[in-house]
Amino acid sequence: MLFLATVCLTGPGLSRAEAVPLIRDTEIETTIRIYAAPLLTAAGLEDEVFNIHIVRDTALNAFVARGQRLFLTTGLLRRSANAGQVLGVMAHEIGHIEGGHLSRLHGAIERAGKAAFISQILGLAVGALSQNARGAAAIIAGGQHVAGRSFLNYSRGQEQSADQAAARYLDRVGISSKGLLEFLNILSGQEFLQTSNQDPYVRTHPLTRSRISFMENHVAKSPVSNKVLPSDFIERYRRMVAKLDGFLDAPEKTLEKYKKEDRSVHARYARAIAMYRLADLGKALPLVDSLISEFPKDPYFVELRAQMLFENGRLEEAMKSYQNAVRLLPGAPLIRTSLAHVLLEMNNPELNDLALANVKHALRVERFMPLAWRLAGTAYGRKKQFGLSAWSLAEYNVLIGRKPLARVQAERALKILKVGSPGWLRAQDIKNQIDRKK
What we know:
globular; five-stranded mixed β-sheet; 21 helices; mainly alpha
């Protein structure tokens, strides 16, 4: 389900109050990755090393960072009018990556304040995706959103270059550039606003009349300008927006937007989420059950059902639904982590190994998941494998920025684990990393 997460890229001079709020959701990330795949191929970039991050921010913004990382705000996804606009923005940002424009930012990073924070976002692995399987982790108040920082500014020449690259990519994959043109026209309406009232995208991506003229000319001449997007792209976009609306808006607002008379899939999806957030399972479950009945192979509706049941203490039913979701989508680490969480919450020793197997599978796919490490620590502890438990808890604490506790657990692991074993080596790395930063 929609995990509210916080990237705690800690370093010297950075407090926990300056964390970047992210949203983790398998369905939304899959949609963005499906959108990105053909564009990356057109740009000659590798899909396997491309990372997607959804920032919880109402501002309209998108940016890329070194290491082929694409950041999109929930504001951009929800305020876009159609999937074509999202694809256009993504193509433009991929143009910055392929064009090597990020290399210019390195000097700016060195000159910027809180350089440790900034360099970690742009240069190191994104750490600490602090998840709460109940979907209710509080976003740290007062967080300063990296997306608005001035060091992300691009030159006008780089913007023109990224537009041209985007147009090429979109033509190569048979997607109209109208969406990107529409997006540029939306931004042009903010040119005369005070800087403080402009969306960050306008401030960090200089907009000129020549950029719009280029895109207008391209749309007029491109052979694919009138081509309609694949229906799958359109439906995925509608579901993505409906899901974000359902989780981020007040339930009453969601129900007003997605009226009962609207029988579309995405509207029913949004209403099911709204009812669930109102704790009205009597209405939420029938809504999601009708979607599952209609689309029995859709893992995300099953996942929503499991989340509803888990949060309402119906653990046995939640376990079965999560197992079904894992069967439908076995490679999703977030869903496996949620299943492991339910299994451990059931406090049945016979389920401990199954929980551990799922959490280990999740961590093999994605190791930057604090909740998964915490659950691993719990599972190993119940098996009396205290060295592995300490190592797991060291990983967990270092990811959420609790360095003193991480060091304590790493030292404990070093005393128990066999010298030279994988856990021992990683615990040593954690301890040394913390000691170097003192």
